[in-house]
């Protein structure tokens, strides 16, 4: 009887343990299933959809990053370091739940124009060398790590209400024109941002910059010897010449433009230049400019030939306007990573690396061209 009773107890215990193991297995399966659901990745042409709350480099290891234009991630809250590093063609990111951009998360995403997120922390080099980034909400970011926004050449305005310290985060933002830093108490930043003209700095006691215009509610230290206005103007950047600018013959009226009616190109500027207008020039040579990074358009309706390296590394150039262009030399537009518009319909001759690294180009039309040289459009991943 004792043995029978003991066997019964053992069987019952075994069954209970088996049930527990089954339950644990079911829980683990559910977790794995949920994990799979949380990591759903859908690739539709040039758009990548991520349904999960986090993403790692492993998750996207099989994705050809240089072919992705759009990233849609409605639930994303965490990004592994360097996850989208060198996704050269990425243009738009929708991640409304994202509050932290990790180290090198979007570094060297040259074509990234806009990111929809609720950012509060931006880690080291997160957006470093995002040359086209100009639509990003930085208002509630509490701290910016070193190089987090370095060489964001298309940023023209910085508004932030939370960060108290800025240290080498915004270096070489060549087109940055005005800053509104409500909580800033210490600034060791903005090296290479030589064209900031307007500031609002209510708490900053140290001297920020010379020859700037400041708001009336800025700290007294900022208002000393500076022009004072009531509020900052609306920041605006025009990427092509206006009718008034095209008609203008008084060159002093537009100090941020180079305007010439000479047939021979003679472009020189020792200050910030937004655009170049050459009414009669027929050839374009390498230019003597203090900063090539701030030029956003070149208007030269009669130019037939652009010579070797003429506009090389004009990173901020958006539009080149000439309907008569026939010949482009070696490396003429090399590294014009922001250029979106150029008329090549009359082109008869191109050269090696003429448009290398012009990733923003997506649609070109040739009516006269018979041959495209090797490497002419090297790394033009927008096609």
What's the arrangement of secondary structure elements?
Blueprint: H1 2-38, E1 41-44, E2 47-50, E3 54-55, E4 70-72, E5 78-79, E6 92-94, E7 100-101, E8 114-116, E9 121-122, E10 135-136, E11 143-144, E12 157-160, E13 165-167, E14 178-181, E15 186-188, E16 198-200, E17 213-215, H2 220-223, E18 227-229, H3 243-247, E19 257-260, E20 268-269, E21 275-278, E22 283-284, E23 288-289, E24 297-299, E25 305-306, E26 319-321, E27 327-328, E28 341-342
Parallel strand pairs: 2-4, 3-5, 4-6, 6-8, 7-9, 8-10, 9-11, 12-14, 13-15, 14-16, 16-17, 17-18, 19-21, 20-23, 21-24, 22-25, 24-26, 25-27, 26-28
Antiparallel strand pairs: 1-2
Pfam families: LRR_5
Protein name: Leucine rich repeats-containing protein
Organism: Trepomonas sp. PC1
Give a verbal description of the structure:
The structure is a single chain. Helix content is 12%, strand content 20%. The longest helix is centred in the first third of the chain and has 37 residues. The protein is of the alpha/beta class and 383 residues long. About 1% of the residues have low confidence. It has a 6-stranded mixed sheet with strand order 1-2-4-6-8-10, with no helix packed on it. A 5-stranded parallel sheet has the order 12-14-16-17-18, with no helix packed on it. The chain contains 3 helices and 28 strands. The radius of gyration is 28 Å and the shape is flat. The chain has a domain of 146 residues. It comes from Trepomonas sp. PC1. This is Leucine rich repeats-containing protein. Pfam families: LRR_5.
């Amino acid at each position: 009887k004792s043995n029978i009773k003991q066997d019964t107890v053992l069987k019952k215990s075994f069954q209970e343990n088996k049930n527990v193991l089954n339950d644990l297995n079911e829980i683990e399966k559910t977790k794995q299933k949920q994990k799979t659901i949380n990591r759903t990745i859908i690739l539709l042409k040039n758009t990548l959809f991520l349904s999960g709350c986090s993403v790692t480099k492993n998750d996207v290891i099989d994705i050809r990053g240089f072919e992705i234009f759009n990233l849609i991630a409605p639930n994303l809250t965490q990004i592994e370091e360097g996850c989208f590093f060198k996704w050269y063609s990425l243009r738009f990111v929708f991640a409304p739940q994202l509050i932290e951009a990790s180290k090198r998360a979007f570094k060297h995403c040259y074509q990234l124009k806009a990111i929809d997120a609720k950012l509060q922390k931006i880690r080291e080099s997160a957006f470093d060398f995002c040359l086209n980034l100009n639509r990003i909400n930085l208002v509630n970011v509490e701290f910016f790590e070193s190089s987090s926004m370095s060489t964001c050449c298309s940023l023209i305005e910085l508004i932030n209400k939370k960060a108290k310290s800025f240290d080498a985060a915004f270096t070489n933002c060549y087109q940055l024109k005005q800053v509104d830093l409500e909580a800033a108490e210490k600034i060791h930043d903005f090296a290479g941002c030589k064209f900031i003209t307007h500031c609002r700095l209510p708490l900053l006691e140290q001297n920020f910059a010379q020859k700037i215009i400041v708001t009336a509610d800025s700290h007294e230290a900022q208002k000393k010897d500076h022009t004072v206005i009531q509020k900052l103007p609306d920041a605006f950047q025009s990427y092509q010449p206006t009718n008034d600018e095209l008609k203008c013959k008084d060159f002093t009226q537009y100090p941020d433009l180079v305007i010439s009616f000479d047939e021979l190109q003679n472009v020189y500027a020792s200050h910030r230049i937004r655009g170049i207008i050459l009414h009669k020039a027929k050839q374009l040579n390498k230019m003597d400019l203090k900063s090539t990074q701030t030029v956003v358009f070149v208007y030269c309706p009669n130019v037939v030939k652009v010579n070797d390296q003429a506009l090389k590394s004009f990173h901020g150039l958006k539009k080149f306007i000439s309907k008569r262009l026939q010949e482009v030399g070696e490396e003429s537009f090399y590294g014009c990573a922001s250029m979106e518009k150029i008329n090549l319909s009359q082109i008869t001759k191109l050269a090696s690396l003429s448009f290398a690294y012009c990733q923003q180009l997506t649609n070109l039309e040739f009516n006269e061209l018979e041959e495209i040289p090797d490497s002419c459009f090297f790394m033009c991943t927008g096609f």
